[in-house]
């Protein structure tokens, strides 16, 4: 506990790369206590800020210590999209569906009960409308990745406390598809 310097939270599969210092708490996405563990890490980061263990990383910032303490905690919600052809990444960008995700009505009970088949139908319709060619296996992996991010976001939006933290700007969730090297390839804006 004495040596922690984490500034953000990462929800992802896989371990740490061989970095000399870790700046993120890792939360395993399939943990049945995902929200509990994520909330704990949010509280730890706030405690580190309040105690002065974490300093504002922005040089020349005009934030006071209180401003820094209350600034949003960043959560990187990642889905690893493995074995995808480069042309499929380009096709995914050509779909231009990211703006549709930001319009999700989180108050709609139908949306909160979406299954992977709903996501599949939505994405296949976008592929058809945009006349985009994407390799079938890559399309299925894309649907799996998007649904994985959506499902975690849904858990947060169903939880009263998380929902309030998101909507009030206390936490900011970056939903990102990354490739096998963990390079961010596609950002999904589920809440704007």
UniProtKB/TrEMBL annotation:
It comes from the Bacteria. This is Uncharacterized protein. It comes from Candidatus Roizmanbacteria bacterium CG_4_9_14_0_2_um_filter_39_13.
């Amino acid at each position: 506990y004495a040596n922690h310097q984490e500034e953000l939270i990462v929800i992802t599969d896989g371990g740490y790369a061989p970095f000399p210092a870790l700046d993120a708490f890792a939360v395993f996405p399939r943990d049945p206590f995902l929200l509990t563990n994520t909330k704990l890490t949010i509280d730890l980061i706030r405690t580190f800020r309040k105690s002065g263990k974490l300093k504002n990383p922005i040089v020349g910032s005009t934030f006071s210590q209180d401003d820094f303490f209350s600034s949003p905690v960043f959560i990187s919600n990642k889905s690893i999209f493995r074995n995808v052809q480069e042309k499929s990444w380009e096709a995914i960008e050509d779909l231009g569906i990211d703006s549709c995700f930001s319009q999700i009505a989180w108050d709609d009970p139908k949306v909160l009960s979406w299954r992977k088949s709903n996501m599949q139908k939505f994405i296949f319709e976008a592929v058809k409308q945009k006349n985009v060619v994407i390799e079938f296996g890559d399309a299925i992996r894309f649907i799996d990745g998007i649904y994985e991010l959506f499902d975690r976001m849904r858990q947060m939006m169903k939880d009263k406390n998380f929902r309030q933290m998101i909507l009030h700007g206390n936490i900011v969730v970056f939903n990102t598809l990354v490739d096998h090297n963990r390079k961010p390839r596609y950002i999904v804006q589920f809440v704007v």
